[in-house]
Amino acid sequence: MxxxxxxxxxxxxxxxxxxxxxxxxxxxxxxxNGxxxNGxGGSTxxxxxxxxxKSEAKDTITALLPPVSGNYQNNFAQMExxxxxxxxxxxxxxxxxxxxxxxxxxxxxxxxxxxxxIAFIGSDGISKYVQQGMLMDIKDTATPExxxxxxxxxxxxxxxxxxxYGFPAYMEVHAIGGNKEYLEAAGIDWKNVQKNxxxxxxxxxxxxxxxxxxxxxxxxxxxxxxxxxxxxKDYLNILIKNAGMPASFNKDLKYAYxxxxxxxxxxxxxxxxxxxxxxxxxxSVDAGKRWNMFLTGQTxxxxxxxxTFENSANKNNEKLKANDGSAVQGxxxxxxxxLPVPTFLxxxxxxxxxxxxxxxxxxxxxxxxxxxxxxxxxxxxLASGQVAATTNNDLFAAHISKSGREAAESMTIDxxxxxxxxxxxxxxxxxxxxxxxxxxxxxxxIKMEDExxxxxxxxxxxxxxxxxxxxxxxxxxxxxxFGEDGIVND
Length: 490
Hints:
The protein is of the alpha/beta class. The protein has two domains: about 60-170 and about 355-430, 3-Layer(aba) Sandwich (D-Maltodextrin-Binding Protein, domain 2), CATH 3.40.190; about 175-355 and about 440-485, Periplasmic binding protein-like II (D-Maltodextrin-Binding Protein, domain 2, 3-Layer(aba) Sandwich). About 45% of the residues lie in helices and about 15% in strands. The protein has 19 helices and eleven strands. Strands 1, 2, 3, 6, 7, 8, 9, 10 and 11 form a nine-stranded mixed beta sheet that branches. The protein has a two-stranded antiparallel sheet with strand order 4-5. Helix 2 links the parallel strand 1 (about 60-65) and strand 2 (about 90-95). Mean pLDDT is about 90; it is low at about 1-45 and about 50-55. This is ABC transporter substrate-binding protein.
C-alpha cells in the first residue's frame, strides 16, 4: 500500500471512530435528560412517578373529586399546575363534585361508557364497578416504587381478586366522639375507655348519664348518630363489626348478616331510642344536623366520629374566641374526645375502617398502554407526597405512604395526644380488607344494603317496624340472593 493510501485509510478510520463516539454521546445524553425527573413533587425524589419531564405525546387525564377535606377543593388549580410541571406533556383536568352528588355524577358517566380516568371513592365500591367492567386494573402498570410507597394494609383495600384498581388516600377509623366536659360531668373515665374500650352494657349506662332534661323536654341527649342521607348505612355497619361480623361475608363466604348477633344489635339500636338516650327523630338526623347538635351542646357523644372532627371543633372554638360571626350559631367551646364504638355479646373489638382513594376507570374501549401509564402517574401523584400530606393533615388522618410522611415532616399540626393514641389503638384492630370476596357476591351485598337494609333500618329507627321484623326481612332477601346454604345459620 502506498503512503498516500495509508494516510487516507487512517483518516477514514479516525472519522468513523469520531462518528461512533458522537452517536454514543448523543444517545447517552438523551437518555439522561429523559430520566431527570424527581417523581412526585414533594415526594421522596425517587422515580416512582416514571420519567418525569420526558418528551412524550400530549395526553389529558380527567379526575372527579369530592371535597375530601375542608381545603381540598381550594387546591385543585395548584394540583393541576404542579402535575403539569412534573409532566409537561400531561394535563390533569379535575372536575369537582359534592359528596351528595358524587355517586350520581360518577354513575351517570359510567352508564354512558365514559367515566373519568380517576374518581375518589370508597374502596367498598370497587366490586360494583369491577362487575360493570369499568375499572382499570393497574397491577401491571404501577411501578414497584409506587406500590412499595404504601403501607400494606390500606393498599389491600384497593384490590379485588388479583387486580389493583388505584391507590389509597387514607385509612380512617369510624369511631365516636365525646364532649370532654360532659363526659367528666357524667363520671365517665374517658381515658380508660380510650385504652380499654367498653361493652354495650357499659356504654348504654354511660349515655343514660349524659341525658339532661328540663321537665319533659330533653335538652341534651347521651348519644346522637347521623342516620339520614349519605350517612344512612354507617350506623349499623359500625356497630355490627363489633358484634362478630367484620364483613358482609364470613371466611367461608356465607352472608353474615343472618347471624343471631345481627338481631341483637338491631334490638340495641331500638333500645337506645326507647330509653331516651337518643332522639326519637333519629331517622331524620343527617351529618350536618348531627355535628350542629354536638357543637351546640345538645348531645354528649356523637357519631360517626372521624379524626378530622377534632380539627373542626378546634376551628369553631377559635371563631368563638375571636367573636367570628361564621362560628356555628349557638355553639359552645368543645374539646373533642375520640372514643371507641362499644362491643357486643362478648365479641372482640373490630374497628370499622374506611379506606377511600383514587380509583382508576376505563371507558368502553381498551385504553392504550400510554394512556394507562399516564393515568397511573396521575393517581399516584394525587395519593402520595405533598398532595397526600396536605390532605391528610387537614383531616387529622394518619399518613399511609412513606412519601406522605416525609412531606408532612415540615408541616405543623396541633392534636390532642390522647386522641392520637386512641386512634392508634383503634387502628391496631382495624377490620382487615377482604379482596377474597368475589365480585358478584360483593355486588349482591351492596344491592342488598341499598334495597333492603337501609330502607328497613330507617323504618326501625322511626319505630315503624320491630327489630325482629327487620331481621326476618333481611334474612328472606339473603336467602333469595345467596340461597339457604349461602348464609350464616347460627
